[in-house]
Structure formats: C-alpha cells, structure tokens
Amino acid sequence: MNRIVEVNRLNKTYGSETVIKDVSFAIEENKIYGLLGRNGAGKTTIMHMITAQLFPSGGELKVFGENPYENNRVLTRLSFIKESQRYPDFFRIADVLDVAASLYPNWDQNFAEQLIEDFRLPVKRRMKRLSRGMLSSVGIIVGLASRAPLTIFDEPYLGLDAVARNLFYERLIEDYAEHPRTVILSTHLIDEVSNMLEHVILIDNGKILLDEETDSLRGKAFTAVGSTAAVNAFAAGKQLIHQESIGGLASVSVLGELSGADRRQAESQGIELVPVSLQQLIVHLTNGKSSGKVAELG
C-alpha cells in the first residue's frame, strides 16, 4: 500500500525543550487513523509539521513522497481542520465555502450544500457571530467536502452536541466508503470513534507508545475483578496497567491476551474478566502508572 506520510526520527525543539523525540511512523493511503494522546503529548505539533506549518528541528518528513514546505503539489492535496481555526471578521459562512472551493481540486459543492442543511447552518451569517458548535460544523463541512487525499481533523467536535457529533461520524464514514482517502482524527472522544479507526498512533510525552492496527489492539488487555486475595494471586507475574481496590474487592487491568489457563483460574476463583476498551487502554497507558514496558504489547 502507498505511503502518504513518512516520518523518520522526527524531532522538534523549542529552545532547550524537546517536544517531539525521534518519532518515526508511516501513514498509508485510504485508511482512517487515530492520532491519540493526552494534551501536550505532541499531536498538534506533529500535525503542524505534516501540513508545513512548522519546520522540524531534525529528522525526515515526506508527504506524498515530497517535502511539504512551500510545495503546492503537496499542499493542494491536504486539508487540515483544527479547532482553533481563525477567519477574517467580515467572512460569512458562504465566503468560507467559496474560498474552500477555490483551494481544493476535489471540492464537491453539492456535498457541501447537503452538509450545510444537515448541520442547519445560516450561510449568510458572519463567522464572528457563530457559536463554538457552528464554527466546528463549518470546519467539518470544509474537511469533508474538500475530499482531499489527506484530510486531518484536530479535535473537530468542540461545541457540538451528541447529535451533531454523530452526524459528523455518519457523514464521514458514508463519504469515505464512496470516496476513499486518508483521514487522520485527533480526538479525546476515543470511545465515540473507536469503531471507525483502522489504525492507532498513540503519542505520549513526545514519543510513540503505540503504532498498531486497531483490530490487533482489541483483546490485548482485560480487567479482572474479584476478591483482593484471588485477584492478587491471579495478577502475579502479569504486566499491570491499572489496579485499584475497595474494601475486600480488587480490580486489575492486565496487558496481554487471555490464555485458557487464565480463564480456568479466574472461573475457579470467582474472578470476573471483562475486556478493556480502546479508550480505557489508552488512559491506562498514558497515566504514568502502568508497570512494565508498552513495547511488550506486540
């Protein structure tokens, strides 16, 4: 499969602070990626370098096989929708869409108009008078209707209620099925998008913790709940990513796949086993309290 983005030992420093540390990964064409991590982990910095809004301090970065900086062959194939997007005060929604239509070769005006109706936006209203949710909706419409070969959404849902967020997910999946392209979603609402993501890149403290297909992550961790004594015995020798206890009960989350022996031991000791969701896995891996090395996940 063709690689849309190739990153090799990428670094970004500000003065004496290194915010991206020898990061390497590849983004393949026609897949939906989750670029995940806590606030300040380095996600937005990486997205800004991919979209030529920041220069790397070291390493190699290629987009569509080329250096993206001041390269129209690359930049016209990118759509980067970020939550802090600013617009001229005099711009109306209609003006934003007109500019977008002139920038993106694959722009679909009919799709944009359909999305305007879906999100119930007043096209003649000035951008500076829009609510936070309406601003997010405009960004989503531009990102979807651009049909750019590489489309990046950085926290696209701010201010949107659950109905509007679900509408975004539905329209994204529907249009992606008909017009495949590479999509990168950076979001904290992992449970809401987990079924959409085909690949996860998890960043923590400027480094890659996970770079795996989503299917391979399912079943990689589980939680055991039961009496403290039974759970402690069950957890012995296992890699724990979370543990807590209340009274005589204990709960541990284990990184690793369940074996037949584990299931039999749990059943005999009255221990309940439940899968760890993708969001729970990422929370546990980035809270700084897990034991062992994440590299053992594979």
Mind explaining what this structure looks like?
It is a single chain. With 298 residues, the chain is α/β, with parallel strands linked by helices. The chain folds into two domains: 3-216, 3-Layer(aba) Sandwich (Rossmann fold); 219-297, Alpha-Beta Plaits (2-Layer Sandwich), CATH 3.30.70. Helices cover 33% and strands 30% of the residues. The protein has helices at residues 43-50, 72-75, 93-103, 109-118, 132-146, 162-178, 190-193, 214-217, 228-235, 260-268, 278-285; strands spanning 3-14, 17-28, 32-36, 58-63, 78-82, 150-154, 182-186, 199-204, 207-213, 221-227, 240-246, 249-255, 272-275. The strands form three sheets. The chain has a six-stranded mixed beta sheet with strand order 5-6-7-3-8-9, with helices on both faces. The chain has a four-stranded antiparallel beta sheet with strand order 11-12-10-13, with helices on both faces. A three-stranded antiparallel beta sheet has the order 2-1-4, with helices on one face. A hairpin with a 2-residue loop joins β11 (240-246) and β12. α4 (109-118) packs antiparallel against α5 (132-146). The longest helix is centred in the middle third of the chain and has 17 residues, at 162-178. The two termini are 22 Å apart. 34% of the residues are buried.
